[in-house]
Specification:
2 domains, five-stranded antiparallel sheet, globular, single chain, Neuraminidase
């Protein structure tokens, strides 16, 4: 360098080059937990659940705040929540003749998170015969009345039987439990269960000259039964019932049943508030032999979605979907699961296979509306849980104490009762 003194002169670095300059940090102020929960509660149930899973304080705030618990519901989400399924209520008889006793067991699926592990069968002290279950409440038939109870809280309310119950209703009537979310005026706070509910009694009458659905509703708000109402059933053909109302499916405030007459198979949809019935004819491909010895089952492939008819036939579970736009059923079914997949799951879980000739005996027991699980019985004492959305077997159980004639009912916890019990690893 001319005139230089034998070295390079250090030059100042231009801004923006070399090492990044430290910028002043602006910390965003955190919102109070009550505000965070209130925001989450106005989105959907799944978001509120994930918010409650972040810490114990959030779960405690949710459990102690009745307004947040009231907002915690699933009707505005299309997601199944499998952990809501607490288990299978099993009513069976033990002993013979005069020593025969009625027992109620819970096949508990919440004991372990390992799907391959055997569930625990334990006796339930509540007693009674399970008629229906929905959103954490159970409807039980006692000796002289009905009872609606919440096993999570231990609260219950007695429901008297309707006066002068007709003989036809005693034999063919179906009870349906409808549960409110406690948002309308807080009427549920004064009921025995702490939540508003309705018990619907329905009976289908079919003859050559009369075709109607008779309903009667008990309301927890009024603690009384309504007058019996006869509703016309348009498009229901036939003069004789081969199989009356099946297990009810409740979707979006409407109750769905399947029935079989001497002219075909039908699906009934009762709009409860409007007291109207819509009838659709099932496709001819739905098996109707043996008067539905293996009864079909109504389900949904997504929470709150359109109904699906499930049928176990020839070692397969088939599904007929219904169009949401036209309400017509697809003419041909889809294969949901086969016996081979169930046996493979049994092998991986270390279970003992039933005899070869009984592996094709599949029976659809129930569908749990919030968790999306279908209980399938193989042979006499092997039970499999099917995740209907993924169409995969997720759990199995076998116990010889569960006799073939036992009655089964799903027990799902209410979401607001379930949230305080889990941790962040649950979701």
């Amino acid at each position: 360098m001319p005139g230089g003194g034998g070295g390079d002169v250090a030059r100042p670095r231009a801004p923006g080059r070399g090492r990044l300059q430290r910028q002043p940090q602006h910390q965003t102020p955190s919102l109070p937990l009550d505000v965070v929960l209130a925001i989450a509660a106005r989105t959907d149930a799944a978001t509120l659940v994930r918010c409650a899973a972040t810490c114990a304080d959030a779960r405690a705030r949710l459990a102690d705040n009745p307004n947040l618990r009231a907002r915690l519901r699933l009707r505005h989400t299309d997601r199944f929540v499998p952990p809501l399924l607490r288990g299978d209520l099993v009513h069976t008889h033990v002993g013979f003749y005069t020593d025969r006793k009625s027992e109620l067991y819970l096949l508990d699926t919440a004991v372990t998170r390992d799907a391959a592990a055997t569930c625990r069968l334990r006796r339930v002290t509540t007693g009674g015969f399970p008629l229906a279950s929905r959103d954490g409440l159970l409807l039980l038939r006692m000796d002289k009345n009905l009872r609606v109870c919440d096993p999570a809280t231990g609260r219950s309310q007695t429901v008297p039987l309707p006066e002068s119950l007709p003989v036809a209703v005693q034999h063919n009537g179906k009870y349906v439990l409808l549960v409110g979310d406690g948002e309308d005026g807080g009427a549920g706070a004064i009921t025995g269960t702490g939540r508003p509910f309705q018990v619907l009694l329905a009976c289908l009458e079919l003859s050559q000259h009369r075709r109607y659905l008779r309903i009667q509703i008990f309301s927890s708000d009024h603690a009384a039964w309504s007058r019996a109402t006869d509703i016309r059933t348009p498009n229901l053909q036939g003069s004789r019932l081969k199989r009356g109302l099946g297990r009810a499916l409740v979707v979006g405030g409407a109750v769905h049943w399947l029935c079989l007459t001497d002219t075909g198979a039908y699906a009934l949809k009762l709009h409860v508030r409007a007291a109207q019935v819509t009838v659709t004819t099932l496709p001819e491909s739905v098996p109707q032999s043996h008067n539905w010895w293996h009864e079909p089952l109504l389900a949904t492939s997504s929470a709150g979605g359109s109904p699906v008819v499930l049928f176990a036939d020839g070692g397969k579970v088939l599904a007929w979907a219904q169009s949401k736009q036209t309400a017509k059923w697809k003419p041909q079914p889809q294969v949901v699961v086969e016996t081979e997949a169930m046996l493979r799951f049994l092998d991986s879980a270390g279970g003992t296979k039933p005899s070869v000739w009984t592996t094709s005996e599949l029976d659809l027991v129930w569908f749990a509306e919030r968790s999306g699980a279908v209980l399938i019985r193989m042979s006499h004492d092997h039970f499999f849980w099917l995740d209907l959305q993924s169409m995969e077997i997720v759990r199995w159980f076998s116990d010889r104490r569960i006799m073939y004639g036992a009655q089964h009912c799903p027990y799902e916890m209410n979401l607001s009762d379930w949230v305080p019990t889990f941790s962040s690893s649950t979701l």
